[in-house]
Design brief:
The chain is of the alpha/beta class. The chain folds into 2 domains: 118 residues, Rossmann fold; 92 residues, Arc Repressor Mutant, subunit A (Orthogonal Bundle), CATH 1.10.10. It contains 8 helices and 12 strands. The strands form 3 sheets. It has a 5-stranded parallel beta sheet, sandwiched between helices. Strands 6-7-8-9 form a 4-stranded antiparallel beta sheet, covered by helices on one side. Strands 10-12-11 form a 3-stranded antiparallel beta sheet. A hairpin with a 3-residue loop joins strand 11 and strand 12.
Length: 230
């Protein structure tokens, strides 16, 4: 059975408090105090990672996040940190985190936001009905949340996939920035629209044979010169 939540925080008392709070609300948890211990469990993923930013041994939560997304890109990650700067929040979102919770926090807030993340990740949005979509030489399976190019798997983070599939299902249509931020990032978005621009940039790099056009002052448009085979 998949553990619901992995908690990575080098403050033992805080780690225990988070674990107790979540277990009291029906979740199963596993706690790690060190970066190296958490890394060894990436291949056996939970439903959600909760990461502190400041860890040990010259590593931090951002380093661990990159390792998680490299091996299990669809598993959601939430940062939970006393560092409350806009740069930290934007950095976390830019590399694919689902949320950023600032310490100190209430138990109710923690439980609610954890429930919302797990609900979203386990119940894909309505535009993600099970279909196989073919465009150019790409094949997208929105149930398995996989993108393949000539049968080679392309690794996309959760947010990259959500944004890509939404554009794919709305070809040759300008989607304004506010709509994309609202649909893809929901109420968990902090900061400027830079997170959207950086996610688009990463998608363009990973699926370079599909054109995503910037419509300045408006938003983005995925160009499909051929019929998309759904």
């Amino acid at each position: 059975m998949c553990t619901d939540i992995y908690i990575v925080d080098d403050d033992k008392l805080m780690n225990e408090l988070i674990s107790f709070t979540l277990k009291s609300n029906g979740f199963t948890t596993k706690s790690f105090l060190k970066y190296k211990d958490a890394v060894n469990h990436i291949k056996n993923p939970p439903k959600l990672w909760l990461l502190d930013i400041m860890l040990d041994d010259n590593f931090n939560g951002f380093d661990l996040m990159k390792e998680i997304k490299e091996l299990t890109p669809s598993v959601p990650v939430c940062f939970l940190s006393a560092r409350d700067t806009e740069l930290d929040r934007i950095t976390g979102l830019e590399i694919g985190s689902e949320d950023y919770i600032t310490k100190p926090f209430s138990k109710q807030e923690l439980v609610l936001r954890v429930k919302n993340i797990i609900k979203r990740s386990s119940s894909p949005q309505s535009f993600q009905q099970h279909t196989i979509i073919k465009i150019n030489d790409y094949e997208i399976d929105d149930k398995k949340r996989e993108v393949r190019y000539h049968n080679d798997l392309i690794k996309l983070t959760s947010k990259e996939f959500d944004l890509f599939i939404y554009l794919i299902k709305n070809p040759n249509r300008i989607i304004d920035r506010n709509t994309l931020l609202r649909i893809i990032w929901d109420s968990n978005y902090f900061g400027s629209g830079r997170v959207l621009d950086d996610t688009i940039r990463r998608i363009r790099h990973k699926v370079s044979d599909i054109q995503i056009e910037t419509v300045y002052g408006e938003g983005y448009k995925l160009i499909a010169d051929e019929n998309i085979n759904v």
